[in-house]
Design goal:
binds 1-O-pyrophosphono-5-O-phosphono-alpha-D-ribofuranose, ATP_PRibTrfase_cat, D-Maltodextrin-Binding Protein, domain 2, binds adenosine-5'-triphosphate, 3 domains, cytoplasm, alpha/beta, Alpha-Beta Plaits, binds magnesium ion, 15 strands, 285 residues, amino-acid biosynthesis
Length: 285
């Protein structure tokens, strides 16, 4: 049975559960459930604190886990990212009160408050900046107002939390984060669970593709086919079928959802008709 760590709380928890559900796995019904066995798919889910997931996976007790890239890096655990999942996207940044410090080299001698001490201590050391780091569990934006630090380093998505605290960003992002699947570094490729891990990753990749592509069908006169196919090359190669009407063909191809309307306009201009898009529920490429 494959043993998988899933975030039990916070920003990662809901979207991770939805993605696993879309991939055909059973998910817990109540947020108090800590373990769920899905016998049909031969997997066991462990609902753990997001921050602890890299530690469990690196210990080898769990085969694979979903966590944030920032949490993985902060943990320093012996685990690596094997698949980015495209949700819980954020940047990790420094911020301070306007007019106090506007660049990293002004941090010398100051205190930086953060919940991500591992990332921040390493970043400051790499930049050769001699600043202190104070660890706080959350709501770090308030640390400056309360005089615990002069600088914070935290997750920024919309920037609302920083604005509300009267802070502004300092310097470039320390990193870009999103939810990722992680596995123990140096896991034996011959290990018995490897085939199950690969199957799990293919299912999630299928969800990612189904979320970002639609299937497009249209009819076009044969003489315009090459120009039409240039607009809809598909992932490998489009399917072309003859139509009963001489001189016309039907084309079927996958296109990115966010480009679909523009491509439909361009195909129509080219003379294509009966242009249809349909959603993809699941796939294996
Ligand atoms: N506002 C946000 N937008 C996107 N991702 C976020 C946001 N806040 C936290 N994350 C991501 O969530 C992960 C942290 O999860 P964690 O559960 O520790 O914190 P949280 O989502 O802030 O929840 P909590 O309210 O329990 O602090 C990190 O990968 C982080 O980048
Ligand atoms: O840029 P924004 O869209 O405002 O999002 C970023 C905020 O979201 C998270 O906080 P959360 O609400 O989880 O509280 P926490 O600080 O206690 O973790 C994060 O720690 C930031 O504070
Ligand atoms: Mg938080």
């Amino acid at each position: 049975m494959l043993r998988i760590a899933v975030p039990n709380k916070g920003s990662l928890s809901g979207p991770a559960g939805e993605m696993l559900h879309e991939a055909g796995y059973q998910q817990r019904k109540a947020s108090k459930e800590l373990v769920l066995v899905d016998p049909e798919n031969e997997v066991e889910f462990f609902y753990l604190r997001p921050r602890d997931i890299a530690i469990y996976v690196s210990s080898g007790k769990l085969d694979i886990g979903i966590t944030g890239r920032d949490l993985l890096l902060d943990s320093g655990a012996n685990a690596e990212e094997v698949l980015p999942l495209g949700f819980a996207r954020s940047t990790f940044r420094y911020a301070a009160k306007p007019g106090t410090v506007d660049a990293l080299d002004g941090f010398a001698g100051l205190t930086v408050a953060t919940s991500y001490e591992g990332i921040v201590a390493k970043h400051l050391a790499d930049q050769g900046i001699d600043a202190s780091v104070v660890h706080l569990d959350g709501a770090v934006e308030t640390a400056i107002e309360l005089g615990v630090a002069q600088v914070i380093a935290d997750v920024v998505e919309t920037g609302t939390s920083l604005r509300n605290a009267g802070l502004e960003i300092v310097g470039e992002p320390i990193l870009h984060s999103e939810a990722v699947v992680i596995r123990r570094t140096g896991a034996d490729p011959e290990a018995p669970e490897t085939a199950k891990v690969e199957q799990f990753l293919r299912r999630l990749q299928g969800v990612l593709v189904a979320r970002s592509y639609v299937m497009m069908d249209y009819d076009i006169r044969a003489e315009h086919l090459e120009r039409a196919v240039a607009l809809t090359p598909g992932l490998e190669s489009p399917t072309i079928s003859p139509l009963h009407d001489q001189g016309w063909v039907a084309v079927r191809s996958m296109v990115r959802t966010k480009e679909a309307q523009r491509i439909m306009d361009d195909l129509y201009e080219l003379g294509a008709r009966a242009i249809l898009t349909t959603g993809i529920h699941a796939c294996r490429l």
